[in-house]
Amino acid sequence: MTSFSQAKELLGASSVYSLEEVEMVFGVKFTPEQRIGLENIPFSDEVLRECAGTHMLFPGFGLSLLDIREKFAVLFYTKTDGWYAEVEETFSRETVPIRWHLLRMEPVPSSFSKSWDEQTALLLPDEDVPSAASVAFATMLHFMMSKQRLFERTCVRVSDVAADDIRVLVGLFDAGGLCVYGYWGGGRGDGLGLSSARKF
User: Fold this and answer.
1) Residues forming a β-bridge with 183
2) N or C, which end of the chain has less CB nearby within 10 Å?
3) Residue 167 pairs with which residues in a beta bridge?
4) How high is the pLDDT of residue 2?
């Protein structure tokens, strides 16, 4: 277990966010029980050193992709409704786990122009693919705190699958707003990478 102050020192203050910062940005409130569960960070000093400069650390809150868009509609390409708001798209209503997340701030290296299977084969045993909600949560948090855009010129595959069995993509977060797309798993693209996070 690692303390918050140790994590900031190891990972870098500009990529570590506190419970209070999450509460401020999203207008939410952790319960006393949730705060107790988040007292210690479940990543070792060694892991945090390895992730310095590439990952951001933050406590997740139980918001869905649609909840996040409702709070930051001006920062999304599709402000309301859209394909992923349809009732059958259950992935957009799944919430961010209330735990510490260590998420890569760029696509997995060498993951462009590859299919889903080829991309996930690049993951190390201690890595996983985060959900669309987790990536959107991290993207909004980082932008609101630093004014820096994650995935500004790229998009990344996430763990979710849409109702028609296509893979969900998040990214291209330019002035037009964060985009949420769907694309078949076998597809390849120059600007299409893979999102990853350290396993909890």
Assistant:
1) 167
2) N
3) 161, 183
4) 87
**Angstrom distance (rounded) from CA 179 to CA 62:** 21
Residue with tokens 């597809």: 187
**C-alpha–C-alpha distance, residues 139 and 163, integer Å:** 24
For residue 120, give its domain range: 4-198
Q: Are 36 and 76 in contact (CB under 8 A)?
A: no
pLDDT value at position 1?
75
Measured between alpha carbons, how far is 200 from 186 in angstroms, rounded to an integer?
28
Each residue's pLDDT tens digit, 147-166 = 999 999 999 999 999 999 99
Number of domains the chain is built from: 1
Q: Using an 8 Å Cβ cutoff, are 122 and 111 in contact?
A: yes
Residue 84 is given by DSSP the state G
What is the pTM (predicted TM-score) of this model? 0.97
Work out the number of other CB atoms within 10 angstroms of the CB of residue 188.
13
Structure tokens at 62: 């139980």
